[in-house]
Amino acid sequence: MIEVEVKEIELKGHIIDSFILPRVFDTIMDLGGDFDVTQFEIGKHKEDPSYARILVKARTREQLDRILGELLKTGAVIPELEKLRLRKAPKDRTLPDGFYTTTNHPTYVLLDGEWVQTDHFEMDKVIVVDRAKKTATLKPISEVRKGDLVVVGKSGIRVEPPERPRGYSVFEFMKSSVSSEKPGQAIVRQVAEEIMKVKKAGKKVLVVAGPAVVHTSAGEALAKLIRDGFVDVFFGGNAIAVHDVESQLYGTSLGLNLKTGRPTEGGHRHHIYAINEVNRAGSLKNLVRRGRLKGGIMYEVIKKGIPFVLAGSIRDDGPIPDVITDSLAAQREMRKKMKGVGLVLMLCTMLHSIAVGNMTSSRVKTICVDINPATVTKLTDRGSAQALGIVTDVGVFLPMLTRTLSRKKR
Predict the structure, then answer these.
(1) pTM of whole model > 0.90?
(2) How many angstroms separate the CA atoms of 249 and 144, rounded?
């Protein structure tokens, strides 16, 4: 008789229509395991939860641990209360062997007999526990310090993935896309409705924007969106700010006249001129205060007092004084300003969108708009049921969204 390693798991909630149950079966088989369903109770009505008890089988303990690690990410729970395993970090920025890495779903740890929720939900972080304060804090490896109690292994951890929405919404399906030639009015209307719902619920809307917003002449549409109160937090890089200032001071973006679409004589130097103007003033805020910057995206952000983070990259010209060039410092500022965000609107910026996506809880609705399908795919493939990818020209999409929201506001 061949000996096998076994462990029983539980699944509760809307595990059928959220496709959690078939995903569990697929995961077990894909990793070479087997299973027996020992108990299965189906909810009789739409709002009734279902329950399943499944015996997971594997050839070795290592294989079983690998399977259980993946199943915990789907929301499976090990019924018996297993003790949380903790090890001290051996030195700064170094983790003990077997450390647990988080998903972007709500996560709990069994700390001295009590289930304690982590301080926030973010993928690819570790959990550091403070027994005296009974807290579980998510940290990136860069913030781990020698002696921190780090959660290791799979035991004593519970994860709650979001269930498929019970009613129809634009986020009902994991992935959506529209034609790259023209965005459908229905999609735009549904996105506008989601933004209105988030605002009415008292949550914040975060916009992450790239310079293509300005290049496609959609800068004025985004500025109006901010002016009308539909944006609460703004993230971007050096380029979006510089080209926004360039467009306001010289009517160009990367030297192209935004009205005619044609190159302007000497226009290739305009973005450097724009950087110099900001440097001369000392900051974007000073440029606005002195009356030099009188419109545009950054003007509206500053006039409305909206928190913003401009994160730098190796390719930046300048950069302007407002840009945070230390990437870890920029991450910390972003995390601080993301508190209370209920919806993220990502506009044609692959690197910043992916960065923010990795910091975002699965309970935050995320809309990624980009002409490049690869950007949309990277975001929607993160596994969140709250992600919507729209492959389209932001220069067409954003004015349509702004007009739709303006009508709804009246």
Answers:
(1) no
(2) 45
Is 325 within 8 Å of 319 (Cβ atoms)?
yes
Residue type, position 67, single letter:
I
Q: Are 244 and 219 in contact (CB under 8 A)?
A: yes
The answer to whether 171 and 121 have CB atoms below 8 angstroms apart is no
Q: Which residues pair with 104 in a beta bridge?
A: none
Beta pairing class for 365-370 and 341-347: parallel
Give 18-21's long-range contacts (Cβ < 8 A, gap of 24+): 18/163, 18/164, 18/385, 19/164, 20/74, 20/75, 20/161, 20/163, 21/50, 21/52
* Nearest-angstrom CA–CA distance, 305 and 302: 5
The matching CATH number, chosen from 3.90.226.10, 2.40.40.10, 2.40.420.10, 2.60.410.10, for 81-162 is: 2.40.420.10
C-beta neighbour count of 120 within 10 angstroms: 17
CATH number of 1-79: 3.30.70.2690
**Rounded Cα distance, 213 and 349, in Å:** 9
Among 190, 237, 184, 170, smallest CA distance to 393 is for 184
Paired residues of 369 in beta bridges: 347, 390
Q: How many CB atoms lie within 10 A of CB 146?
A: 11
Residue 181 · residue 390 · CB < 8 Å: no
Q: Say what the pLDDT of residue 115 is.
A: 87
| pLDDT, tens digit, 9 for 90 and up, residues 185-225 | 888 999 999 999 999 999 999 999 999 999 999 999 999 99
Q: What is the distance between the alpha carbons of residues 307 and 342, in angstroms, rounded to a whole number?
A: 15
- Rounded mean pLDDT of the chain? 88
Which is it for strands 341-347 and 204-209: parallel, antiparallel or unpaired? parallel
The two structure tokens encoding residue 267: 């226009």
Q: Using CA atoms, how far apart are residues 299 and 278, in angstroms rounded to an integer?
A: 12
Across the chain, how many H-helices and E-strands are there? Answer: 13, 19
Assess contact for 374 and 236: CB atoms under 8 A. no
Classified by CATH at the fold level, domain 185-409 comes out as Rossmann fold (3.40.50)
Quick one: tokens of 390?
């729209």
Give the integer Cα–Cα distance in Å for 138 and 196: 31
- Residue pair 151/129 in contact (Cβ under 8 Å)? The answer is yes
What is the rounded distance in angstroms from the CA atom of residue 314 to the CA atom of residue 71?
Answer: 39
Where are the chain's structural domains? 1-79, 81-162, 185-409
